[in-house]
Amino acid sequence: AQTVTQSQPEMSVQEAETVTLSCTYDTSESDYYLFWYKQPPSRQMILVIRQEAYKQQNATENRFSVNFQKAAKSFSLKISDSQLGDAAMYFCAYRIGGATNKLIFGTGTLLAVQP
Amino acid sequence: NAGVTQTPKFRVLKTGQSMTLLCAQDMNHEYMYWYRQDPGMGLRLIHYSVGEGTTAKGEVPDGYNVSRLKKQNFLLGLESAAPSQTSVYFCASSYGRDNSPLHFGNGTRLTVT
Lengths: 115, 113
Known about the structure:
- The complex is a heterodimer of chains A (115) and B (113).
- Chain A has 115 residues and is mainly β.
- Chain A is built from no helices and twelve strands.
- Chain A is 0% helix and 53% strand.
- Chain B has 113 residues and is mostly beta strands.
């Protein structure tokens, strides 16, 4: 069975600093997709960034970037120039390509941003 | 543009009562999902649908039933609620497969006493 592990239940970062959130996954598939979602206190789930496993280049979205290490099955999220609005629960998620289409989530990392 | 709408937002049930959670999306998405979120456990997939008239079991389907009679609606039913079903329930939809992102509703907080 596919699993997603986020080993850091909580993290803290100073405003304007950089923080990295860890995510590892377990799969025997070669075709899959990875996502990071953000859940602020409003409870809304917001897509932060996504990565296709077949792409070697790491995805970036403004201050958010990933370090995708396919051989190590690692998909970490780096947040640069952290802002107070980045405080949220962050979930890593994995989806197998093809008809199954299920998205499997990790347990989340709660990020606090200190002013 | 409403996106994904869940009703109700909050509900309190007594053990043994039944209820239906409604999810509606106006984006013409094929795929719809029901997740539950519990502290320390992330989001776990209950049931999902790959198109109108289809449903499939996710990771934690026991105690729940679903129906997708219309493409835009995905209903989650609890026939006999139990305290273990106290949770926040999220509905989501996606246009396609692979790297298509999920669009989420704002959640339903259900408490079973």
